[in-house]
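We modelled the chain as a single entity of 416 amino acids. Its sequence is:
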Amino acid sequence: MPLADKIRPSELDQVFGQSHILGEGKPLRNIIERGSIPNMIFYGPSGVGKTTVANIIAAKSNMSLHKLNGTSASTAEIKDIIASRYTLSAVNGILLYLDEIQYLNKKQQQSLLEYIENGEITLIASTTENPYFYIYNAILSRCTVFEFLPLTPEEIIPAIKRGFQLIFDETGRELTVEEGVYEHISQGCGGDVRKSLNTVELCVLSANGEKITYELAKELTQRSNMRYDRDGDQHYDLLSAFQKSIRGSDENAALHYMARLLEAGDLPSVCRRLLVIAAEDIGLAYPNGIVVTKACVDAALQVGLPEASIPLAEAVILLATSPKSNSAAAAKDLAVADVRSGIVGDFPRHLQNKHYDGEGAAVKGQHYLYPHDFPNHYVEQQYLPDELKDRVYYKFGDNKLEQAAREYREKIRKQS
């Protein structure tokens, strides 16, 4: 049996972390202690206590416990559980613990609706993905969502110490744990208790002599805090933090998030996002930013990892320390909003690609004014459709370059 299962708590007071929902007087603790269990969804990363708390609830409820995993559960298994509600074993009701519910398809999830609504089945589902994105609304509306958070290093250390002691007691092998080992394992597990206990087991199995050294712990926990799934929330959270750090002109935070992405081998996402940032957040305040960024991205893709991190770091620092403007992105959004609302109108006659008029035309002739024939290559004429002729999408940013462009525009308009 894995060490994490051997020391799995059987009482709420033994659960590591999650004091925001399991502390004295907190919502989930009150629900469990009162014994009237509603349908619930536990949301959070792996190894933070979701299954442990579900097991404690099941033990205290006296209900018939059934466990399914969304990655492998079949429709037939769900139907069998539904049918068992008529058996003697289910006299106190059925508690269904459904792990990774996001992997069930819509039909499978909907098959439970009637029974969780009338109380014949109590559902406790867990998911590592945001339930508001991955679980169908009909299920969500019938459940209370509790978020489980990654544990802090301080919260994990007691579990690590308990894990070492249990192995020593079982094997009769008393090893000396060098100073700093507990702290390093707790720092390197990314808030995942199960991962920290797996490292504890590895440390004992691979220890030479009678000591578990800091160097051994360091070697075994290397990169273990890289909790990352390119198709999951962690991927989008990292990219969001990366872009927002550059937008907020914090090059240190941006370098941190870039390092996490690259350490996970996600070079394409970093390159794509940098090009977006150069256009969306730096924009017209420093138009050459996207040119330099494109050169850095091209170099990174050509040399590959790990050297790719060098030109990408240049791009990150350049963009983070550059002046910012979202004027182009904001103007684009306003224009798109009109188009999607159906506000388009017909082309002004002088912009159309035709040089003849029908017999019914009120005004004949195209009458297009060629700007290059006029001073400053500018002449006043209508370009937007009539319905939108007074619409203003773009507003000059307050940075040096856009203000210079505004002044030039005002000057040539006055001279026309």
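As a brief sanity check on the tokenised model: The radius of gyration is 31 Å. Residues 153-171 form the longest helix (19 residues).
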